[in-house]
Amino acid sequence: MSTPPATPQSIVIVGGGFSGLMTAVNVMRLARRTVRLTIINGQRPTGRGVAYSTRRAEHLLNVAARNMSAFPDIPDHFVNWLRTRTEYDTLPEHELRERFIPRLVYGDYLRSLMHHYLSAAEFVDGEAVDVDERGVILSNGRVIEADRVVLASGNEAPAPLPGAEALTDHPGWLGNPWLDWLGRLPASDGSIVLLGTGLTTVDSLITLRSLGWYGRVHAISRHGWLPQSHFRGIEYPDFPPEGVDLAELGLERLVKLVEGHCNRLRDMGANPGIIVDKMRAHTQRIWQKLTLEERLSFAKHHAAKWNIIRHRIAPEIHAQITTMQLTGQLQVHAANIEKVSAADQRVEVQLCGGKTITGDLVINATGPQTRFTATSSGLLQNLLRRGSVSPDDMDMGVRITPGHTIVDGEGKPSPSLLAIGPLLRGTYWETIAVPELRGQARRVAETLLGETTEPTIEQKVMMEYMI
Ligand SMILES: Cc1cc2nc3c(=O)[nH]c(=O)nc-3n(C[C@H](O)[C@H](O)[C@H](O)COP(=O)(O)OP(=O)(O)OC[C@H]3O[C@@H](n4cnc5c(N)ncnc54)[C@H](O)[C@@H]3O)c2cc1C
After folding, report:
1. 263-309 pLDDT tens trace
2. Is CATH 3.90.550.10 the right assignment for the domain spanning 164-228+312-364?
3. Residue 422 CA: which ligand 1 atom is closest?
4. What is the pLDDT of residue 159?
5. Which residues line ligand 1 (CB under 6 A)?
6. Ligand 1 center to residue 59 CA distance, Å?
7. pLDDT above 70: residue 86
8. What ranges do the domains of the chain cover?
9. Is residue 190 pLDDT above 50, yes or no?
10. Which protein residue's CA is at the shortest distance from atom 45 of ligand 1?
11. Nearest alpha-carbon partner for 143 in 158, 156, 154, 128
12. Which residue intervals define the domain FAD-dependent urate hydroxylase HpyO/Asp monooxygenase CreE-like FAD/NAD(P)-binding in the entry (predicted)?
């Protein structure tokens, strides 16, 4: 884009999930002058994104209601919004705050914010494929002029598995778990193989149960670890120890300290997950203070364990998964996947070590692709090719400044591009859940507007409750 003005007249946000929507909402909340705002979003309804566009009520949030406010400065916003709905209206406060609400209800919450704050914005249903000096270019050739462009493209689809390229049209193969697969459900004496044991696999298992499908399910991942359950913690004031700055320890000493406290909690009969929770407020700073070697070492040796403790699931969901295991319906395998291939109408999964597992339906739920330069997004590939964006030093996402301005291929802050959300994994590590993203959305809005202002909170909240 040609040199943009210091204060933007027109802002285009690419991606209309939580990150893009809440960036737009914060711009409208904070702006003291008129800004032209456009949100470009493809594939699903704007506002809901991948996580909250599910139509299935059995898919619950994996964070309690009390921590799901969309605004960092109004902590009870979501809980208060829930009171506008009949089913939550009369629940005791402590019960409502601890509830794991259906994700589709959270999608309704985001849509209500969209209607309230963004009546003046333009919504474009389409795919952005490039950004050049004219603005944002869509796949249909339309160009949308912009002084500033925010990349809020969210999580990538899973990385392709060896052999999957030959299965594109195979009826028993699903390369993207976010596509609708219910029409392909095998007969109840058939089998389903889920590649991955993370949150997407949990979603699929819960749906199978709610459909009353009792066929055989195999779930495969390197360690075979399913997410752990949320639990009621205990007071544990000993961590972090007084006077210790966790971010200054370096990886080796930090791991030692954490393991020591986890063992102490185990000895006390308490859940060591408390330590991971207590680290959450420090995680981004710790990550940024680690050396590149330490971050790579964490990703290789500790990340899998961290993820299953950190990204826990609602106890009622965990109980259903446990039942599936105990009844033998679900078998979990710890193995690396070597390749996938067709076996007539079925799909065969070959594991390292020679074992094979065959399914009538095999779903790639291995989690988002994390190597940024291998992105399947045409937009991001084009921006990389132009040198408009550059990978962070772990190649997990884009490089940014503290204000979320993208750093280009020559190492200079871009005059017009910003980023938010999962694209910043290499910078922050924790950057995929609402408690982190709501703060980012506000920061990006402030950078866009070049100002830090306080909104008149009470007035706006009152009006939303009446929607
Ligand atoms: C199954 C699941 C459950 C989750 N549960 C929780 C939870 O309970 N609590 C929590 O805090 N977090 C949860 N998360 C994390 C969740 O990802 C974040 O809360 C948040 O929704 C991420 O939003 P996003 O906008 O960054 O990305 P996304 O939701 O992925 O949205 C990105 C949007 O951008 C669009 N897009 C991408 N590229 C383009 C392009 N080139 N042109 C146009 N549009 C484009 C996509 O189609 C998509 O609509 C969950 C995630 C998943 C997958």
Report:
1. 999 999 999 999 988 998 899 899 999 999 999 999 999 998 888 88
2. no
3. 26
4. 86
5. 14-20, 40-44, 49-51, 61-63, 127-128, 152-155, 199-200, 203, 377, 379, 421-422, 432-434, 437
6. 15
7. yes
8. 10-156+370-465, 164-228+312-364, 246-310
9. yes
10. 15
11. 128
12. 12-155
Ligand 1, atom 31, residue with closest C-alpha: 17
Tell me the CA–centroid distance for residue 17 and ligand 1, in Å.
Answer: 5
Cα(190) to ligand 1 centroid in Å equals 32
Res 361 pLDDT > 60? yes
**Element of type H or E holding 334:** strand 330-334
Whether the domain at 10-156+370-465 and the domain at 164-228+312-364 fall into the same CATH topology: yes
Q: Does domain 10-156+370-465 correspond to CATH entry 3.50.50.60?
A: yes
As a whole number of angstroms, the distance between CA 42 and CA 26 comes to 21
What angle (nearest 5°) sits at the alpha carbon of residue 459, between those of residues 456 and 460? 85
State residue 309 phi and psi, 5-degree precision: -85, -40
Q: How far is the CA of 19 from the centre of ligand 1 (A)?
A: 7
Percent of the chain with pLDDT over 70: 95
pLDDT tens, position by position, 137-159? 999 999 999 999 999 999 988 88
Average pLDDT of span 327-338: 96
Other Cβ atoms closer than 10 A to 132: 14
Which atom number of ligand 1 is nearest to the Cα of residue 68?
Answer: 11
**383 neighbors 130 (Cβ within 8 angstroms):** yes
How many Å lie between the centroid of ligand 1 and the Cα of residue 53?
9
pLDDT digits (tens, 9 = 90+) for 36-83: 999 999 888 899 999 999 999 999 999 999 999 999 999 999 999 999
135 burial level (CB within 10 Å; 0-12, 13-18, 19+): buried
| Ligand 1 closest atom vs CA 43 | 47
Ligand 1 pocket test target in 38, 139, 153 with most atoms within 8 Å of CB: 153
Using only C-alpha atoms, what is the Rg of the chain? 23
What pLDDT score was predicted for residue 455? 42
Q: Is the pLDDT of residue 341 over 70?
A: yes
